[in-house]
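[stage:ingest] chain + small molecule (1-deoxynojirimycin)
[stage:ingest] validated
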Amino acid sequence: MTRSARVLLAGAAALAFASGTAHASAAAAQTSPQTQVPVAPAEPDWARPDSQMDAFIDDLLARMTLQEKIGQLTLLTSDWESTGPTMREGYKQDIAAGRVGAIFNAYTAAYTRELQEMAVEGTRLKIPLLFGYDVIHGHRTIFPISLGEAASWDLDAIETSARVSAQEATAEGIHWTFSPMVDVSRDARWGRMSEGAGEDVFLGSEIARARVRGYQGEDLGAVDTMLATAKHFAAYGAAQAGRDYHTVDISERTLRDVYLPPFKAAVDEGVATFMTAFNEYDGVPASGSKFLLTDVLRHEWGFDGFVVTDYTSINEMVPHGYSRDLAQAGEQALNAGVDMDMQGAVFMENLARSVEEGRVDTAKIDRAVRRVLEMKYRLGLFDDPYRYVDAAREKATLYKPEFLEAARDVARKSMVLLKNEGNVLPLAADAGRIAVIGPLADSKADMIGSWAAGGDRETRPVTVFEGIAARAGDGVSVEHAKGASYEFADAGKTDGFAEALALAERSDVIVAAMGEKWDMTGEAASRTTLDLPGNQQALLEALVATGKPVVLVLLSGRPNAIAWADENVPAILHAWYPGTQGGHAVADVLFGDYNPSGKLPVTFPRNVGQVPIHYDMKNTGRPIELGAPGAKYVSRYLNTPNDPLYRFGYGLSYTTFAYSPATLSAASMGPGGSITASATITNTGDRAGEEVVQLYVRDLVGSVTRPVQELKGFEKIMLEPGESRTVSFTLTPRDLAFTRADMSHGWEPGEFQLWIAPSSGAKASTPVTFTLTE
Ligand code: NOJ
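[stage:predict] done
[stage:export] tokens:
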């Protein structure tokens, strides 16, 4: 599907069983050669042949000792910050001794210059260091967390965020970001859901591409672009029970159809590096998986960059029970396809002996070193190791007004209006007395979420209270009370309630800013419950009991189970962790200066027992629609509906949109053809607004069962009141490909249903049917 026709299909789980019109025989469809999707070798700009570079690296490699080569395969953290369980004393001595080729968690022009000087002035071959860092959603100017950005469904906005991140990070000496995190995640218990693009394969793939484009730009050699990293390869988001680092046990088909496509998209966009995952796949830790790192990544996809492990994940192959000791772990990792060891010093301490004793081939070391040196060369570091080290540029770049404005814009675009009963929102300019209550109402530290790179948590972030106070008109009083606590240990306490309730009583409207503490999502932040932690729920209930209108502004990095709020609170806005300018962005939406347009990139369950839940599930042989209400012997729960609280793709606006039924350009398409689906969307309200128009498809019968709906396109459009626009999506058979019964990748002839809709599961949209012919 072309970029301009980026719109999708909405599926309907409900259409499941009964509508199963017979079509093409699965057996005939499985392996016919014309339905194979050819593997397109990746040809990013940076990978273009460069004979001068090859000659330079040949010469350098020929002069390197084995230890110097291994040094290039070693990445160590500085002691500025800890992003993992171990620190290593003496990284500066390691740099000076040529034992390390790359450093992370070190930035600023001054500090990277100091360390670079040690490498360049102090080592025999003067090979410059590569500086990496977790620049995930902004470097100094912090944008919304990645899951929030995904909720914008605005690829230009997401690319802008990555572009600004690259401009700020490179101005502080960073060459390489450990982003984008492209792990599909379908389990809200897993804290790292906040770092990715949510549950969907298609949306996640498009966002992966946008982020790579933003970080790397057109030219890796430009001084304001940086290497991107697709992580964590692979299937990290499928951790059992949502517990971080836990075992992954999924079929190869699910791996290929759900977890790998965003990585492949990143390769196609030219991503320069990959990071392995902590988890095992099919019994093999990802850092030791030849299947993932060589067979898939190199041979199937033609990836040309280098692979770094995650933090000490080679070492962890020992407790995984895959390696008897570190030496063996290092050999297994290198032989599987790892190029660089992050923080574990396993290569540094063991690999030379492994080579000497013949368990690792020098050619493999040389190949890995070449890949690393090539990136240093492409960045221009051999021409000038200090080209990213410029204090004047640093000063002129950080927190530029246009960066702050971009962060505010992306933040308001990321917010999802979940409920707005009685049009409580937008707040009137003369809203009267506004009470801003809750542990997240005036908390700077929380506004920027986890993995906030060099972001300041103490002074710069604009809180919800500050944003509302700044926006409220003359004569509008805005007061704040914390009222409750989000700490798990404070459940049951009521200190602070009286003050908050007194404020509520003397106010005209209550904005309750509640959710999770910033570090309750991110790495090592899994939960077994999804409720509002601490005593927030009790306070929320007490606030609602005052009878005053309550607007719940939710700040968190995962779907929370907010069924009570959905039932009882008139207005709910999900603001994620919106970043440095977050409070202003919240105010923009609450007062209607920006009409909310975000849509959920992830399904919100009613309760944790529904997890994992995602929109593109399978129908089962006993779908609930098959039985009468309450029937036994169908696939359902006794105590909770199957439906989620809020569907993937869902989000309200201050205006309303009407969709015409979809029409198709033809009733069928052949293997070389295409089909265009169109629908007319009308703004039926009285405000201009943006709508994310979504295209969903269902493949009715396959050689293996197919999801009840799959997003295949989306387009975000702006409509004036009364305005209509026809949105079209063109699909080719390639867009309908999947891993077939024989494990080949391709499409199958047969019948498909298609919807153009405002969210997944939009039963309001009547599906149209087309046939894919042989
Ligand atoms: C561990 C995390 O899993 C990874 O995402 C991050 O890039 C590294 N630590 C480095 O901080």
